[in-house]
Specification:
This protein has helices at 10-49, 162-168, 206-234, and strands at 53-54, 69-76, 82-87, 93-103, 108-117, 130-139, 176-183. By secondary structure, it is an alpha+beta fold. Strands 2-4-5-7-6 form a five-stranded mixed beta barrel.
């Protein structure tokens, strides 16, 4: 039973209840995401730390090996490399260099051989002929809402879309894998291109968001109670 001095009024009570429902609901929604996101990041860390596995001949669902280390032998095709605008792991502007490598007893893989800076005038030498690639498998990139479309004819690439790159190289759908592989760095530490450019940009801020929403709910409850007693004293 509420004290006699507590008189918030029906309209305020209804608004406070609705606000509490919304805020607690948002907090719970974020709290439920903490576990799955933590498991995802743990899976990525395990995949990146594990020894490379041989790239399967068939991989219908690339997400099953996303962020996992793989290795395969193949032949670099005689196609012009694709330079995709990108930053290095240290945040410097430049390009990621992609070239097609036909897996022995398999299809073509779009291989990211590494990063080069904008000021690099000449294309650094890429591997040729028969090679062995060791690196990290990643799904095809998707553009953000503000990312310009790729201009293959003009050589302006903003997204490493495997399907667009394959079309640019004259490959048909069943001639290439629908994922890409980021090659490990090869050669001297300062050699170009700089391989191993795998970035893990998956924030896990759900716990902070949950605490924020629950905190706002408690604040709303406190304001509601304080106002109710204040109104009761004044009435």
């Amino acid at each position: 039973m509420m004290p006699k001095g507590f008189r918030p009024g029906l309209p305020l009570t209804i608004c406070a209840q609705l606000g509490m429902i919304v805020l607690v609901g948002l907090g719970t929604w974020q709290a439920r995401k903490v576990g799955p996101k933590t498991d995802l990041l743990a899976s990525i860390e395990a995949g990146l730390a594990a020894a490379p596995i041989q790239l399967p001949v068939h991989l219908d669902d690339p997400t099953t090996l996303n962020y996992h280390r793989v290795a395969f032998a193949g032949t670099v095709l005689d196609r012009a490399p694709v330079k995709v605008f990108a930053t290095s792991l240290s945040g410097k502007s430049g390009y990621h260099i992609y070239a097609p490598v036909r897996k022995h007893h398999g299809m073509v893989v779009a291989v990211n051989f590494g990063w080069v800076p904008f000021h690099q005038k000449e294309m650094p030498a890429l591997p040729s002929g028969d090679i062995t690639v060791t690196g990290v498998l990643r799904t095809s990139a998707t553009p953000g809402s503000m990312t310009p479309p790729n201009d293959a004819a003009g050589g302006n690439w903003f997204t490493a879309d495997v399907h667009e790159m394959a079309a640019h190289w004259g490959l048909r759908t069943k001639e290439y894998y629908h994922f890409r592989v980021f090659s490990d760095h090869v050669g001297a530490a300062d050699a170009l291109p700089q391989g191993g450019q795998v970035r893990v940009d998956i924030p896990n801020d759900h716990l902070q968001y949950a605490i924020t929403w629950y905190g706002l709910a408690l604040t709303l409850l406190g304001v509601y109670i304080a106002f109710g007693f204040k109104r009761g004293r004044e009435g």
